[in-house]
Amino acid sequence: MLLTDLYNKKKNKIKTLLLIDIFHMKNINASYGFKNGNAVIKQFNKLIKTVIKREINNMLINNFAIKANCKVTRHYSDVIAITIYADLNQTAIIKIKDIIIQNLLVHQFKLTDPKLHIYINTTIGCSKSADENLIVYAEKALHNAKKNLDAFLFFDANLYKNESSNNDLVELIKYNIQNKKVAPYFQAIYCNKTNSIVKYEALMRLFDRQGNVLLPNTFLEKAKSYRLYVQLMQILIGKVFDSILKYKMNISINLDYNDIINPLIRDIITTQIHQQDIGQYLTIEILESERIQDFDIINDFIREVKNYDVSIAIDDFGTGFSNYEYILKLNVDYLKIDGSLIQKINEDIYRNLVTSIINFCKKEHIETVAEFVSDLKIQRRVKSLDIDYSQGFYIQKPMSINKLLGVHSEG
């Protein structure tokens, strides 16, 4: 395939913008002084302008045959902007996000004392658009990511350009609730010991009036802002439980701390498990996060659902605020290793980190799941490290129940 030069300076050309912010920069200044803080920012800027920019360009060329102008600028203070003059799809944006996080996560930032160095965490806001308000959309994404302690958030500029578009999105969410269009899409989880699919993760999807699929990064924040999220979850959970009853499928669903402390979500789960006797088929994935404020509440919930043979997994473990003490506080069955580590598992530093997680889990009798297994090379490495399960596009892309059953009936 010939490379396509997508760089175009015309104002109507779609650009993709990522804003990268150093998490808790004020704490770095307070702990080490402004001189060290400025030194960290300079290294941060240089790393993005050199190594990260080069890796992004190479990835776009090698994976998507896209040759795009990539511009790195200092947005303000400790925020760096990466502008890519191309209309990138979700897969490309996620890969760029992973490149940024993975490089910054392991980089040693030197202080004025040559014996000292620190590591940093970052928050990323992203959007894409052809209009002059692109920076506004990206800043909204960054603001919401920081507010919710997310490492990354994408704002769909097509749905957030003006108040009318905001209303359109809210109306779409209401349309999905009123017509019960909310649907689980199922992604397979593959057992590396039996070489077979053993369960599926249910992922929320909405639809516009033309039947096009809306991904969570498009609607989730708006649903929460307008207090519609709980209704979406109630419909999703109901449909997941219906699938378990009808097809006797092993399915996992995602809950975060706020879901568990919400009595409406908690009650529908515990009541349905009790009444329908489906606990043995269900795994609840709890998002690994520093936002868990009360481990007693989480443990009470885990004890309650385990009475009905429900399994518990910790999701996205291995980056950010991940720590083993967190795991030891909870009675869990599975630990899902974050995709940002799995994507670079063939590099020594990441393989060593993953190996330490696996060794810990084996000692604690916790089974492991590799997320974001995107190709055969990664899957082979995952199996060689004795990770119990694999999940990702190489195994299967998320799909509707009808398509899933169609695939199986054809196989």
Characterize the structure shown:
The structure is a single chain. By secondary structure, the chain is α/β, with parallel strands linked by helices. The protein folds into 2 domains: 4-161, Alpha-Beta Plaits, CATH 3.30.70.270; 175-410, EAL domain (TIM Barrel, Alpha-Beta Barrel), CATH 3.20.20.450. It is 47% helix and 23% strand. Strands 10-11-13-14-15-16-17-18 form an 8-stranded mixed beta barrel, surrounded by 5 helices. Helix 1 packs antiparallel against helix 2 and helix 2 packs antiparallel against helix 3 (90-106). The protein is globular and about 60 Å long.
Contiguous uncertain segments of 5+ residues: 1-12
Helix % is 40-55%
CATH uppermost class of the largest domain: Alpha Beta
CATH fold field value of the largest domain: TIM Barrel
Q: How can the largest sheet be summarized?
A: 8 strands, mixed, barrel
Work out the helix count. Answer: 16
CATH architecture of the largest domain: Alpha-Beta Barrel
Structural class: alpha/beta
Q: Could you tell me the number of beta strands?
A: 18
From the alpha carbons, calculate the radius of gyration and give it in angstroms: 22 Å
Could you state the CATH homologous superfamily of the largest domain?
EAL domain
The coarse silhouette is globular
**Overall pLDDT, averaged?**
88
Distance between the termini: 32 Å
Task: Walk across the major sheet and give the strand order.
Answer: 10-11-13-14-15-16-17-18
Total domain units: 2
Strand content: 15-25%
